[in-house]
Structures are given as C-alpha cells and as structure tokens.
Amino acid sequence: MRFCPRSFPRIGRTPFAVVLILGGITAVAAWAAEKASDESDFAKTTIDVGVVVSDAEKAAKFYTEALGFTEIEGFDVPAGLAKDSGLADGHAFHVRVMVLGEGESATKIKLLEFKGVPSKKVDNKYIHSSLGLSYLTIWINDTTAAVERCKKHKIKLLAKSPVALPEGFPEGVFLTVVNDPDGNVIELVGPKK
Question: Across-strand partners of 110?
C-alpha cells in the first residue's frame, strides 16, 4: 500500500493528516512553553526570610499569636552544613518556620536562635538606622482587627500607628508599624473594617 495523504481517513471534510499535523504543532507549542518556564531563573517567585532571634519561643508566639502566622514543621541545619555553606561558623541550629498562606507560594519567615553564641542587635529604631534588610511588610485585610490583636498581646504600636496612607496611595489603606520581640520593624498595611 502506497503512503499518500488521500489514504488517510477523513474526519468530516478535514483530512486526518491535517488533524495530526495540527495536533503535533499544538503538542510542540505546549512543550516549548513548558520548556521556557523551566528555563526561568526562578523556581518560584516567593522569597523566604530568615530572622535570627534571641528567643525562638518568644518570637514564634509573636508571629503566630500577635500577627496570625501558622507554624509548620521546621528543620535542623547540621554544624558541618552550616560551616561549609557559610551560613554559620560551625554552629548547628534549628529553624522554626512561620507561614502566611498555604501552598508553595506562601510567605515563610524562618526563625533561628543560636543559644550561647554572642550576637549583637541591629539598630532598628528607624528603618534608616542600619544598612541591610530593614523591615517586613505584611498585607492585611482589616487594620482594626490587626490592631486589636496586637493590643491583646501587648504589642506596642509605633508612633501614631495606624496612619492613613497619603494622597497618591490607595485610598482607605492604613499603615500600622510594630516591633517583634527583638525590635525588628513590621509593617501591617490594609484597610479598616
């Protein structure tokens, strides 16, 4: 039997060969799109933030009870890995993980405590007091509820917080600033309900 397009069955008025070709083009396009996403520089677009704290229990209580994060299973970093990677100078440590949201794209704050290791505090009086990472911004749905939660847990609101964002920013949105137990600056941004 000779191979020729006329020998393909017809689907309605469209030759089967055309259907095969279009299906092949679609499959190649899907493969190319998947390949392009695999070649992105980033596996996910959410970053995790590590915070060295003086008291992990106190910090975990702040992030879960006062701010509403959920603690998930943490992990240990052995001394050898810590030293070989450059994270720490030979000290093993445990990471407690706080999440905001669900799934792979949830924000994660990783709390690390190094017991018996001298550490110095960063000057967090204002965000311009020290170079480096200065504050975390957490987007909230209800400033009133967030303020009540902070007050319930005796978290002091800074300056005149909450303050309305000025003209040029979204209307009806407020900024509330608090410190975590080690003085790190946390912004809570959202409307009042």
Answer: 50, 97
Tokens of 78: 């052995």
Torsion of CA 124, 125, 127, 130, to 10 degrees: -60
Task: Report strand pairing: 14-15 vs 10-11.
Answer: antiparallel
- Residue 133: other Cβ atoms inside 10 A: 13
Domain architecture of the chain: domains with CATH:
5-38 (no CATH), 42-119 (3.10.180.10), 121-193 (3.10.180.10)
The alpha carbon of residue 135 and the mean position of all alpha carbons in its chain are separated, in whole angstroms, by 14
- SS3 percent helix, strand, coil of the chain, rounded to 5, is 30, 30, 40
> What pLDDT does 165 receive?
92
Q: Which of 77, 97, 76 is nearest to 86 (CA)?
A: 77
Which 8-state DSSP code applies to residue 187?
A: E
Rounded distance between C-alpha atoms, residue 115 and residue 56, angstroms: 10
As a whole number of angstroms, the distance between CA 157 and CA 176 comes to 7
pLDDT > 90 in the chain, percent: 56
